[in-house]
Structures are given as structure tokens and as C-alpha cells.
Known about the structure:
32% of the residues lie in helices and 25% in strands. It is an alpha+beta fold. The chain has two domains: 1-38; 43-128, K homology (KH) domain (GMP Synthetase, Chain A, domain 3). Strands 1-2-3 form a three-stranded antiparallel sheet, with no helix packed on it. Helix 1 (44-66) packs across helix 2. The protein is globular, with a radius of gyration of 17 Å. The two termini are 31 Å apart. This is OsmC family peroxiredoxin.
Amino acid sequence: MADLKSRPIGATATLGRAGYPAIRSATGGQLDIVTGSSQPGFNPLDLLLASLAACMSMSARIAAREMGLHDMVERVTATVSGEKAVDEPPRFVGFTVVMTVVGTLDHDQRMAIAHRAEEICTVSNSLAVRPTVRVATA
């Protein structure tokens, strides 16, 4: 993953009396949130799943490079789904990551890349340990 010491990280969500949150990253990226079931775009749960998918795909590329297999990989796709709890509080109780590694690799090499990607990925590592969330007011 990218060196977090050299890249500002963080996000701010701004929400008015009506409408949906607008998200701005510490580096100036912008994203609007949607919540309607038929609206195209991302809701907060999608963003969490997307973060895991993006991290796992980038980590797989790093893993392939570490293993000397980078030239054998044409494309990596990480498809992530989440299982929501049936009881309170609202939360995900599990995630499924399906890694598709396209290239001239055998099954064992694909599996090795996927497992190493999970070890490298900051998002999967963070989700695995239930990090502390601190809430304050300004």
C-alpha cells in the first residue's frame, strides 16, 4: 500500500438540512453519497466494501511483484460483499472477498497472491481487529 506517512489521509462528510452527504478527502477528492435503493452511486456501506475491494486489488499487485509474478498478471479484480447482522447494533458481521487474478498463473500462485494481499491490505487488517472509534464534537 502507499506510504501513509507521505499522503494525507482522512475524510469529511458535510450534510445540510436536506439531501445527502458530500464527502471530501484530505487530498481534495470529492464524492456525493446516495441512499435510494435505485440511485446509482455509493452509500456508506458501499464505500466500506469499495475500500476493501480497492485495497485488496492494489495489495494483490504488490504481492505479485514481491513474488516475482508481476509479469504474469494481466488484471486483478476484487469483488467484495458483506453480511449484515440480523440483530442490533446495525453492522457487518463478515466480508467475502473473491479475488480474480487473470494471467498465466496456476491455482497455487493465484491463491498465494490472494493470501499475501490480505496480509498487506491495511483495510482488511483494520477490519480484522475491530479498531477503536473515538467520537468528539467541535
